[in-house]
Amino acid sequence: MPVDWDKLRVFHAVAVAGSFTHAGETLNLSQSAVSRQISGLESSLGVPLFHRHARGLILTEQGDLLHRTVHEIFAKLSIAEARIGEIKDRPQGPLRVTTTVAFGSLWLTERIKEFIELYPEISLSLILTDSELDLAMREADVGIRMMPPHQPDLIQRRLMTLRYHIFAGVEYLEQRGTPMRPQDLDGHNLIVYGEDAEAPVANVNWLLTVGMPPRKQRRATLRVNSIYGIYRAVQSGLGVGALPHYMTISDPNLVEVLPKLRGPTFDAHFIYPEELRNSKRVIVFRDFLRRKILEAGL
Q1: CA distance 127 to 129
Q2: Is there a single domain that holds both residue 295 and residue 276?
Q3: pTM of the entire structure?
Q4: Cα(5)–Cα(3) distance, rounded to whole angstroms?
Q5: 3-state DSSP call for residue 71?
Q6: Distance separating alpha carbons of residues 282 and 154, to the nearest angstrom
Q7: Domain residue limits at 17
Q8: CATH number of the structural domain spanning residue 63
Q9: What is the four-CA torsion angle of 30, 35, 37, 40, rounded to 10 degrees?
Q10: How far apart (Å, rounded) are the C-alpha atoms in residues 268 and 282?
């Protein structure tokens, strides 16, 4: 006989209440509707479940057996429902995050320890690449990108606005002196993007032209096709380069040069597919990033 959960639910309520009337009030059903459900259950089982008398209902032997079984089942269902609710409300499961090599290596990874301690049931994977992974095809769950995504139908939220600043290593400045005016860059080693590099701003090599006459350009000492490569070259003491401030926060060997000179800006975006809009893993990671960005003053 197929289990009729509606009839069993009504039966359980009647057994607890001891009358059709009180059970009906609990279930928001009429007395006659409750009575029909119980009669239908008794008919399908082929046994009476209640003794009816003037003072109410008493379970028969078969009814008592069924009640103890149903009570146990509904108690377990209630526990399972509560546990499912806890799981639903507690972020857990895999979360694959992709971002650029520079941002992931120099800023994000050193802050991940706190996130893992806060959410130990989230299994976090970082995919550091300057290529744009296909989030729609679930090559990653979320992305932190320094340029708007090319893929359509992705949710994107601006995380922060970043600005290029000019930096050089301590030893380099001790040897070559510190530029005091934009024109002083003429006598320094300049490290810039390569001509084929994909960059978040159009005038990414502004160091070559700032403070110069129109249509004039300085010579670059080194061209690199990634911002992380520029950072490493500047860090090594080779010369002067333009870097987003997040790359230098934890590096005491880098000094900002010409701090009043403002470079171009670009936005970092948090992106994810539409189907993950309500994912608690995504939500808590996004909120964690926002908090750490505010703490860092970015």
Answers
A1: 6
A2: yes
A3: 0.66
A4: 6
A5: helix
A6: 14
A7: 5-89
A8: 1.10.10.10
A9: -150
A10: 17
